[in-house]
Amino acid sequence: MHELVKYLNDYKKECVLSPLLKMLEAVFELTVPLVIARMIDKGIKAGDGTIITVSFVTLIFLGIVGLCVSATAQYFAAKAATGFSAGLRHDLFEHILSFGFAEIDRLGTSTLITRMTADVNALQNGVNMFLRLFLRSPFIVAGAMIMAFTIDVKSAFIFVGVIAALAVVIYFVMTINIPLLKRVQSKLDEITRLVRENLSGVRVIRAFTLEEDSVARFIDANSHLTSMMQRSGKISALLNPLTYVIVNISIVFLIAAGDYQIRAGILTTGAVVALYNYMSQILLELIKFANLIVTLNRSVASAQRVNEIFDVSCSMTGDPSHPDIINASDVPEVEFRNVSLRYHENADDAISGISFKIEKGSSFGIIGGTGAGKSSVAHLIPRFYDATEGEVLVGGINVKDIDLSALRKHVGIVMQKAVLFEGTIRDNMLIASPGATDEEIMEALETAVCSEVVREKGGLDAHVEASGKNFSGGQRQRLAIARVLCAKPSVLILDDSSSALDFLTDKKLRENITGLSYHPTVIIISQRTASVEGCDSIMVLDDGKCSAIGPHAKLLETCGVYKEIYLSLYRKEED
């Protein structure tokens, strides 16, 4: 957890003042039994009303001042803990955004969400409790024991035995509970994943009447989590009863010893009452300390999980040595040299032995069946993944040697699934090009055959719900295309991004892109020959391998895979 302490650097004053004020509050509490002892021995026993009154006023004063000091300490602790979690959550989110697709695939979205929320909240609670109690509770326990020695040495040894016994109990609970709490948090990741899958795939689940299966899977995972939390809770729950038993047994011995010493004239009644109050204070503080230990156990487990995310570094790095070569006209815009891609170490190749060149300003189509590897090829160009073997070049430079921000400004890609963010249409368009004017945005919308949709919705200030739920699938796809066009990339990749469009709209979109004044290099990925037949060259993929490359007419004659795809769409005309 020490790696995360840096997030308290801006709250050093609060981290010092909060414990100190809590210790000051503890001093007032330790003074109370002495005031009560004096009231009993010199006031009530002697019948001195002045001492009783002064003692009573003193107790009220100590209570009011202690309350003010405690409230101030709570404020500083809460401020430091909230600031700590805000800084940690910000850096964690920023770090996650730096991940490539490979890291996100490996870690899992549900794990990242849990660690961003539940684990950071657990750490915030841990910091808050730590600042309030880590000095106060030990100080009161030690102070009560010392005060007991000032009253009676023999009775004070009971305090020593109590503290030693409770230290053993706390150590036992910590040793067992920390690993168990870490497993609980891991199981929570699985629950988050199941909920996320069921919510995102609710339509599919209903379509195939799989509600009962989904509920059964959730109940199974939830029962495992419940069982583990119950085990952890049972161990944590041992702290309070064991603390009560040990302290209350000690109080019995203390009162019995005190009765004997009062009869023998060794101690006064007030002294025994003071010892009893100190033992009660130890009981209350150790209960608080036990809760602090449980909270810190959870915080330590969460800190380890958060640090695991920080320890993951993005594999996507680059340092361009010739940044202007990226626009050179004497080299292919995009080139693959015997490229293979494997998503996981023990997985089969998604694509293998792919080689092709795309000249600047030309159009290139990639076609194939589902799972043929089309998107895998597309994701290697903006370097969402690194090739397992071979080289991917953009502008004659290996993408591994190009700065990622420069590469992704040069290469614009529209994914298969169109993603819109909550806000306005203008907000979504400005994501790709923050400095774009309204005229440039409307021009991009015209090219994407989407300007009429925007006008019907109320213009660029029309509201967009999360994930674009207030737009149809085709409208979302066209808005996503327009967003990329706003940035005017030199390489434009359309990864099956017009699948929800009708043929006429798709044709109009391709014609508009072909007529762009800055003539980008266009890569169109599709399962429909109609979408790629106008390209200068087309690559046919089959089971991750290049089956053929050439223009539409040649592929119809020489490539059986391409012809089969073509006939599946135009069988009636061929017949």
Please give a structural write-up.
It is elongated and about 115 Å long. The protein is built from 20 helices and twelve strands. It is of the alpha/beta class. Helix 1 packs antiparallel against helix 2. It folds into two domains: 309 residues, ABC transporter type 1, transmembrane domain (ABC transporter transmembrane region fold, Up-down Bundle), CATH 1.20.1560; 250 residues, Rossmann fold, CATH 3.40.50. It has a six-stranded mixed sheet, sandwiched between helices. The protein has a four-stranded antiparallel sheet with strand order 2-1-4-5.
Question: How would you concisely characterize the structure shown here?
Answer:
The chain is an alpha/beta fold and 575 residues long. Helix content is 64%, strand content 11%. The chain has helices at 12-44, 49-97, 101-107, 109-133, 136-151, 153-200, 202-207, 211-237, 239-263, 269-310, 374-380, 404-410, 425-430, 438-447, 451-457, 473-486, 503-514, 529-532, 552-558, 560-574, and strands at 334-341, 351-358, 363-368, 389-394, 397-398, 411-414, 423-424, 463-464, 491-495, 521-526, 537-542, 545-550.
- The overall average pLDDT, rounded, is 86
Q: Please state the CA-atom Rg, rounded to the nearest Å.
A: 35 Å
CATH architecture of the largest domain: Up-down Bundle
Strand order of the largest sheet: 6-9-10-3-11-12
CATH topology of the largest domain: ABC transporter transmembrane region fold
**What is the CATH superfamily of the largest domain?**
ABC transporter type 1, transmembrane domain
Q: At the first level of CATH, what is the class of the largest domain?
A: Mainly Alpha
Strand content: 5-15%
Tell me the overall shape: elongated
Through-space gap between termini:
71 Å
Task: Report the sheet with the most strands, covering strand number, pairing sense and barrel closure.
Answer: 6 strands, mixed
SS field, number of helical segments: 20
